[in-house]
Amino acid sequence: MSHRFDPTLLREYDMRGIVGETLQAPDAYALGRSFGTIIVRAGGSRIAVGYDGRLSSPMLEAALVEGLVASGVDVLRIGAGPTPMLYHAEAVGQVDGAVQITGSHNPRDHNGFKLVHRHAPFFGEAIQQLGVMAAAGDWEEGTGRVETIDIMDHYVDRLLRDFDGAAFRIGWDAGNGAGGPVVAKLVQRLPGEHHCLFTDMDGNFPNHHPDPSVEANLDDLRALVRDKQLDFGVAFDGDADRIGVVDGQGRTIPGDRLLGLFARDVLKKRPGARIVGDVKVSQAVFDHIAALGGRPDMWKSGHSHIKSRMKQIGSPLAGEMTGHLFFADDYDGFDDGLYAALRLIRTVTAAGQSLADLHAAIPAAISTPEWRFPVVEDRKFAVVDEIALRLRTLGAVVNDLDGVRVSCAAGWWLLRASHTQAALVARAESHDSEGLAELVAAIDAQLAESGVIRPNPSEDRTREIEKS
Fold first, then answer.
1. Going by C-beta distance under 8 Å and a sequence separation of 6 or more, which residues neighbour residue 357?
2. Single pTM value for the model
3. Residues 13, 121 within the same domain
4. Pick from 333, 360, 387: which residue ends a domain?
5. Radius of gyration, CA atoms only, the chain
């Protein structure tokens, strides 16, 4: 037997595809055979498996487990739940690896797999190796056993360990994603008053799509906070490894600025610590971390890259603009939107200020949101390479760690290829609207030279961060 994955399924830090087109049950089975073989040949024997609330997830989970068992691996099934619950099971369950079936924040007909091996993310060339093994049928044979456990209450206990937050009035929007049942359990045990939206898992996402980095997806939460006059609100993506936040006035606090807010708290206990932020993080936030006595460390986007970097340099805190936040001071170093929500409560409690006032302490900036626009899979990286070459020829100040981040007197702009979609990602930040317009024009000019037109540039919205 052998199997050929659609090449677009094997991405940089996980596997993602469109169900019925590039991703089907045989792909899940072949992944089980290949990943199970890697586990066995590394001396392991047991894997934890979980899945999110998408309609296709149970089908993919069953095929994955079948493939793992056929490779001789024992499987610990934890059932439906958020990705960080799977990470927790991997951390405490005496297993050698883990797989979560999840489409994260992608459209509802998408799905995929996030993998862990020996307490570390499994990504990059390792994912490409899965394809090589499957195509060759290079698989171990065996008969593994299957055990099913309920770990959700244990995970909730871990989330609440060391919790010392005060009573607040909070809105919670689970977006019908996999974090909903955990939110429902958490709010029963937290002090204060809690108002929940869409905690039932529903892969049709009937209320709004579970991606809190998109402003429109926070409208329901924003309305709840304003109508009930709550202290703040939190929202989660489809697998609850990312968080979105609105303050008591319904204003969004982006993920990169949450990193700056949490850095204040972490650096009090770890002065001089290195704080990791991805290439999309605001320069104002990096400068704020430095002003607090921390050492900002810019790194590649993607949860696997960030977690690996944290371990490499011993960082206690990291974050991405998209709302992935990683705590390794008194938590386990993986991205967990639910834990980030609890840390937010604790941070606001310790500060003795409102969330809005804490946010206002981070220097103001004006920026675009993250623009994500379609470019065909086999062209997106080439566009970025072409632009990087032209910029170097022009003598521009370019950081090419992950795409191109260009610095100039007006501020900075970024263009990179998405590793999860057939898309390019762009962002710009300046000190004023005139400078921002200059940066956006530079992005569009470079794209045009490579034959790409960014959709609806005349309808661009900027994100202005006020101090009050």
1. none
2. 0.93
3. yes
4. 360
5. 22
Active-site annotation holder among 104, 282, 308, 367: 104
Q: Are 18 and 66 contained in the same domain?
A: yes
Torsions phi, psi of 99, nearest 5? -135, 130
**Calpha distance 370→80 (Å, rounded):** 30
For strands 15-18 and 168-173, give the pairing. Answer: unpaired
What backbone torsions phi and psi does residue 37 show, to the nearest 5 degrees? -65, -40
**Is residue 372 located within the same domain as residue 458?**
yes
Question: Could you give the angle at the alpha carbon of 452 between the alpha carbons of 446 and 458, nearest 5°?
Answer: 85
451 sits in the region (left: phi over 0; alpha: psi -120 to 50; else beta) called left
Answer whether residue 190 is part of any domain.
yes
Residue pLDDT, tens place only, 320-347: 999 999 999 999 999 999 999 999 999 9
Q: Round to whole Å and give the CA distance between 464 and 215.
A: 13
Q: What is the CATH number of the domain that holds 308?
A: 3.40.120.10
Looking at the structure, tell me whether residues 385 and 410 fall in a common domain: yes
What is the token pair recorded at 431? 């000190």
Among this protein's residues, is 315 annotated catalytic? no
Residue with token string 């002065």: 271
Taking alpha carbons only, the member of 13, 16, 42 closest to residue 5 is: 16
pLDDT tens column, 233-272:
999 999 999 999 999 999 999 999 999 999 999 999 999 9
